[in-house]
């Protein structure tokens, strides 16, 4: 079962995804995702020569809106769910030393 | 009891003053308090807010200003659809304390139709799952057999109706998440054509596949709900500019007999024999009504799950990036710097299935693998869609099972892949952006509901609902209630 793909670098993926995985999660996910990747390998059997990719069931593109001012949130409403705030701003840890 | 009746009948009782909206809501409140500790359909509810809405409905009715068939109807919303000033958890620790600052467009439309919001309904975390077992709030149990799942991801929406806690509900469907729980709970569930219903204010999972739709007891109920929520929304640029018909009125403009296609790939290995027999009986009903039944082929069906779990996880990994602990939602207190805050917040806030899908989506989009996985999947998606377009040259709609099995036992899927394979008959509809409807078509010998699926042509919901209504109105599956 533990068909870990040789290319599946779980450390790197966790870092790219910004999720601090626990050691047991890394081991489990690597095996499970290896199984899923083995399963999706069947797509290599399909002849896709000359086939365009589909991004949406019904492609609609370039939808423009008039550049009008519309009502929005007040600062209080926009900040209500912020984990930490101060002086009408979202408070975050120091980014630059 | 009005709690076990279709929306149309409850609506008639309100109109005839046999019951008031407050009495109706109170019956739902009492029922919820009596059964939901066993069913687990609700994440939360706000009794005072709902009662205020019900009183306002009664006042409108007394003043002769009723807003239509939904005025005063208790409607439950999947806890991923924003309701102003109410919690939205998406059944995730990440949003445990989040309060929506605005209404989703579908919420606003239901509010304008007079619906009374009763309950925030459980789901697989961020709609990622097919059983409502992946919920930080605990699983939802099937009212017909509490040891079994209600389906998912809109399991709370389906179970709440089946248990008599709400009259109708909204769910969302990315790979079958409305239709499969509806089939597991003896209900009608409709996933509209992609673009018919606004996604604004609905927490996004896989944006090219997600669609909001109704779950209800009958096809006519679903038609009423769809009329209320469909239509263009300037806040969702993928919503279509089109006239929305009165879907309920359209039910009675019979345009049959129809040509129905039976896809041979949907009746292969893995289909439960009792499900196959019940679906075949429904097909025979249409045949006896004079419909032409024709075998069709959707040759790329076998690739649907592989394409889905690439496309959906890729979009998921992008959409979930917004949960970073900065602007809203959970923030880790263990973090010391700006990057650490993302990684620890996401480790603490997301459940296992969400993490797994983000990691898989990150992989298929990552440098060096994009063409091999994501781009290839999008091309196979084109072929899946083309299969349906080709079939519709011969038939008006497709008829098939909704799920290969009836509701399964909780904990019975031992691996993620095993769980994913159950979506085989619903996923193609999302890939192709088509409307799909599941309706009850019988029970197993052990009393589990079975659903039959009708798949329609893009934006032809009126026809799809008419076809479904022809069967649904001639049967009385909705009267088979669970023993709770």
UniProtKB/TrEMBL annotation, chain A:
Keywords: ATP-binding, Ligase, Nucleotide-binding, Protein biosynthesis, Transferase. It is an enzyme of class 6 (ligase). The keyword Ligase applies. Its EC number is 6.3.5.-. Allows the formation of correctly charged Asn-tRNA(Asn) or Gln-tRNA(Gln) through the transamidation of misacylated Asp-tRNA(Asn) or Glu-tRNA(Gln) in organisms which lack either or both of asparaginyl-tRNA or glutaminyl-tRNA synthetases. The reaction takes place in the presence of glutamine and ATP through an activated phospho-Asp-tRNA(Asn) or phospho-Glu-tRNA(Gln). Heterotrimer of A, B and C subunits. Belongs to the GatC family. This is Aspartyl/glutamyl-tRNA(Asn/Gln) amidotransferase subunit C. The gene is gatC.
TrEMBL record, chain B:
It catalyses: L-glutamyl-tRNA(Gln) + L-glutamine + ATP + H2O = L-glutaminyl-tRNA(Gln) + L-glutamate + ADP + phosphate + H(+). It comes from the Bacteria. The active site is at 78 (charge relay system), 153 (charge relay system), 177 (acyl-ester intermediate). The keyword S-adenosyl-L-methionine does not apply. GO terms for molecular function: ATP binding; glutaminyl-tRNA synthase (glutamine-hydrolyzing) activity; transferase activity. SUPFAM superfamilies: Amidase signature (AS) enzymes. Pfam families: Amidase. One of its GO terms (biological process) is translation. Gene3D superfamilies: Amidase signature (AS) domain (3.90.1300.10). Keywords: ATP-binding, Ligase, Nucleotide-binding, Protein biosynthesis, Transferase. PROSITE patterns: AMIDASES. Residues 23-465 form the Amidase domain. Its EC number is 6.3.5.7. GO terms for cellular component: glutamyl-tRNA(Gln) amidotransferase complex. Heterotrimer of A, B and C subunits. HAMAP family: GatA. NCBIfam families: gatA. Allows the formation of correctly charged Gln-tRNA(Gln) through the transamidation of misacylated Glu-tRNA(Gln) in organisms which lack glutaminyl-tRNA synthetase. The reaction takes place in the presence of glutamine and ATP through an activated gamma-phospho-Glu-tRNA(Gln). Belongs to the amidase family. GatA subfamily. This is Glutamyl-tRNA(Gln) amidotransferase subunit A. The lineage of its organism: Bacteria, Pseudomonadati, Verrucomicrobiota, Opitutia, Opitutales. The gene is gatA.
């Amino acid at each position: 079962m533990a068909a870990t793909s040789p290319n599946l670098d779980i450390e790197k993926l966790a870092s790219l995804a910004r999720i601090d995985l626990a050691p047991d999660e890394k081991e489990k996910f690597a095996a499970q995702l290896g199984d899923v990747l083995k399963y999706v390998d069947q797509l290599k059997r399909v002849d896709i020569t000359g086939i365009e990719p589909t991004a949406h069931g019904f492609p609609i593109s370039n939808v423009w809106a008039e550049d009008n001012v519309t009502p929005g949130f007040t600062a209080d409403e926009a900040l209500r769910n912020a984990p930490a705030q101060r002086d009408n701003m979202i408070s975050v840890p120091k980014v630059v030393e | 009891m009005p709690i076990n009746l279709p929306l149309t009948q409850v609506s008639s009782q309100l109109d005839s003053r046999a019951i008031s909206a407050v009495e109706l809501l109170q019956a739902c409140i009492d029922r919820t308090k009596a059964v939901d500790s066993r069913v687990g359909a609700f994440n939360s509810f706000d009794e005072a807010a709902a009662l205020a809405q019900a009183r306002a409905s009664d006042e409108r009715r007394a003043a002769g200003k009723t807003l239509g068939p939904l005025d005063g109807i208790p409607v439950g919303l999947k806890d991923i659809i924003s309701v102003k000033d109410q919690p939205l958890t998406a059944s995730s620790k990440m949003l445990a304390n989040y309060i929506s600052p605005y209404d989703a467009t579908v919420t606003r439309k239901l509010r304008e139709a007079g619906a009374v919001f009763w309950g925030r309904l459980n789901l697989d975390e961020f709609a990622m799952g097919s059983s409502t077992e992946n919920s930080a709030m605990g699983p939802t149990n099937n009212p017909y057999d509490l040891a079994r799942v209600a389906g998912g991801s809109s399991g709370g929406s389906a179970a709440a109706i089946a248990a008599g806690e709400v009259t109708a509900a909204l769910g969302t469907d990315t790979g079958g998440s409305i239709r499969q729980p509806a089939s597991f709970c003896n209900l009608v569930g409709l996933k509209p054509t992609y673009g018919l219903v606004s996604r604004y204010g609905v927490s996004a999972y896989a944006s090219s596949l997600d669609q909001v739709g109704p779950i209800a007891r009958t096809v006519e109920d679903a038609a009423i709900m769809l009329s209320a929520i469909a239509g263009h929304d300037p806040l969702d640029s993928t919503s279509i500019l089109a006239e929305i018909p009165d879907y309920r009125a359209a039910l009675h403009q019979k345009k049959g007999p129809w040509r129905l296609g039976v896809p041979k790939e949907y009746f292969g290995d893995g289909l439960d024999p009792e499900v196959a027999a019940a679906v075949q009986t429904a097909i025979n009903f249409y045949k006896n009504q004079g419909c032409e039944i024709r075998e069709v082929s959707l040759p790329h069906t076998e690739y649907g799950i592989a394409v889905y779990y690439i496309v959906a996880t890729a979009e998921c990994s992008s959409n979930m990036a917004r949960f970073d602990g900065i602007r809203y939602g959970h923030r880790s207190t263990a973090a010391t710097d700006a990057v650490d805050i993302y990684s620890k917040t996401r480790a603490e806030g997301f459940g296992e299935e969400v993490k797994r899908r983000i990691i898989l989506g990150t992989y298929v989009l990552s440098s060096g693998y994009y063409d091999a996985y994501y781009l290839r999947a999008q091309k196979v998606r084109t072929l899946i869609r083309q299969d349906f377009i080709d079939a519709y040259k011969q038939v008006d709609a497709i008829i098939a099972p909704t799920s290969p099995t009836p509701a399964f036992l909780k904990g019975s899927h031992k691996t993620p892949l095993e769980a994913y394979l159950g979506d085989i008959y619903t996923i193609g509809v999302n890939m192709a952006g088509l409307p799909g409807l599941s309706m009850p078509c019988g029970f197993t010998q052990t009393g589990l509901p079975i659903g039959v699926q009708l798949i329609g042509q893009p934006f032809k919901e009126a026809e799809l609902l008419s076809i479904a209504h022809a069967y649904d109105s001639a049967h009385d599956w909705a009267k088979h209630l669970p023993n709770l």
